[in-house]
Specification:
This protein starts with a strand and ends with a helix. 47% of the residues lie in helices and 12% in strands. By secondary structure, the chain is of the alpha/beta class. It has 10 helices and 6 strands. It has a 6-stranded mixed beta sheet with strand order 5-4-1-2-3-6, with helices on both faces. The protein has one domain: HUPs (Rossmann fold, 3-Layer(aba) Sandwich), CATH 3.40.50. It is globular.
Length: 215
């Protein structure tokens, strides 16, 4: 397997392992981090930067999606939040991949790790992507992923509170259909939200950013 791929890199355990596995398969991996700023601070960006440095990814990009995600919470039914926000991430990542000449997207999702990661939801989420989505951890359990993170040296960086669920519902929709998602997205100006997030796209100088981190 060769070519370029764009990894959706969170600050958690899963996506760094996924990116590492696909690079071992021969892909040139760049990373994109979706920050929840200004809903949260930039702590997740620091984690993503440290992870990119640890794994030697060639490039790291960041977008700030907090305002767009708040709009999803405001205008749509809360149980659909995870599916709708991930579809937005797929559309934005697909555009970044197009600009960078990436043939694939990579995510760290695996079946059943959280209630929103079901086959039905992932199928609907994938419809928002314009390039193929690779999920190398799809059949892994959490213990396997944690063990691999420890072996890679990313475990300690990823450990700590996760911020990606801060706007999420207590009871997310687990079997979203295309019809339901279309109905919810009709309540949003999808093109405007995508443009809003893409205007925040920035390339991170990983080495320089690390020098700013105390200790």
């Amino acid at each position: 397997m060769d070519g370029k791929a764009l990894l959706l890199l969170s600050g958690g355990f899963d996506s760094p392992v996924a990116g590492h596995l696909m690079r071992r398969k021969g892909l040139d991996v760049l990373a994109l981090h979706v920050s929840l700023e200004p809903v949260t601070d930039d702590a997740s960006v620091t984690k993503a930067t440290r992870l990119a440095a640890e794994l030697g990814f060639r490039g790291l990009y960041v977008v700030r999606a907090g305002d767009a995600f708040k709009e999803i919470v405001k205008r749509t039914r809360h149980p659909w939040y995870f599916v709708l926000s991930k579809r937005l991430m797929m559309r934005v990542a697909s555009e970044v991949a197009r600009r960078e000449g990436c043939a694939y997207l990579i995510t760290g999702e695996s079946i059943g790790q959280v209630s929103s990661q079901t086959l039905a939801n992932l199928a609907v989420i994938d419809k928002a992507a314009s390039v193929p989505v690779l999920r190398p951890l799809i059949g892994f359990d959490k213990r396997e992923i944690i063990d691999r993170a420890k072996a890679l040296g990313t475990y300690d960086i990823s450990a700590g509170p996760e911020l990606c669920d801060v706007l999420g519902p207590e009871h997310p929709r687990t079997r979203a259909t295309r019809e339901e998602v279309s109905r919810e997205e009709a309540l949003l100006d999808i093109a405007a939200l995508d443009r809003q997030v893409l205007t925040t796209l920035a390339s991170v100088d990983v080495a320089a950013k690390l020098l700013e981190v105390p200790g």
